[in-house]
Structure formats: structure tokens, C-alpha cells
Amino acid sequence: xxxxxxxxxxxxxxxxxxxxxxxxxxxxxxxxxxxxxxxxxxxxxxxxxxxxxxxxxxxxxxxxxxxxxxxxxxxxxxxxxxxxxxxxxxxxxxxxxxxxxxxxxxxxxxxxxxxxxxxxxxxxxxxxxxxxxxxxxxxxxxxxxxxxxxxxxxxxx
Length: 157
Prior knowledge:
With about 160 residues, the chain is an alpha/beta fold. The chain has a domain at about 75-145: Nucleotidyltransferase, domain 5, CATH 3.30.420. About 25% of the residues lie in helices and about 10% in strands. It has helices at about 30-45, 95-105, 125-140; strands spanning about 75-80, 85, 90, 115-120, 145. Strands 3-2-1-4-5 form a 5-stranded mixed beta sheet, covered by helices on one side. Helix 2 (about 95-105) packs across helix 3 (about 125-140). It is elongated. It starts with about 30 loop residues before the first helix and ends in an 11-residue tail after the last strand. About 10% of the residues are buried.
């Protein structure tokens, strides 16, 4: 017989038998993860205040003020491609800044200067537009804007 190690109740040839290990892919169980996220979502929904108004009730003071004067209607200057000027739809014969300034002063009503809208043709000269701006400066108009047209097919905002 052999002099090796013997287990009680068994023979030396039997020994310990181990099962072969099977390599399996690790699995991630998503159900507990979804449960935890659902509990967090419910907690956030219950504890979040969506709109919290100020709870103090106050009476605001009342002021008696005069009605604000209506602002002057805007003035429109049109600059054509060949350098002609139009003011409020009427052609101005003289193309100088002084003549245009006098025409602007005749149109201004009230204490506050109006807004001037310059509509210049795309082919008008740069000098023609600058003359219109200079005439507005001479007339004391500081609020000047330029009329633009969006390109065909451009999205409106």
C-alpha cells in the first residue's frame, strides 16, 4: 500500500474531486438599477418646488403721473440708386445735406427728435447714404436706423 495521505472513510485513490470551472460572461442585472433610478425620480418629484412665490403680502404705492407724450412718428428718407432723396414719400430736388436737413427740420414736431429710418437702394452710392446721415446730424436727429430686406427664402425669426 501507499504511505500517502488518506481521508477518513475513503481510500487513497479517491481523493478530493473538484468540478471544472465554467467561464461565463459577467452579467449586469438592470432591474435593480432601474428600481433605484425610479425611487430617486419619485423623490425628486415630491421634494422639488416648481414655482415658489413670495409669500409676503404687500401693498404697493400708487403714483399719479401725467400720461407720457406719444413719441414723434418716425421719419423716412429714401435714397434711390441714382442718388435722389425722398422724405416721407416726397421727392427733394436739391441733393445737398443742407437742403435735406432743412426738409427734416420742417417735418420734426414736438420736443423730442424722432427716429429717422433711411431706406437706401442696394445700388445707391455710399456718399448718398452718408449725405443723408449728415443731414440728420445737422437737423439734430441722433436716432437713425437703416431699413433692410431679408434675402428671398431666408427663415423669419
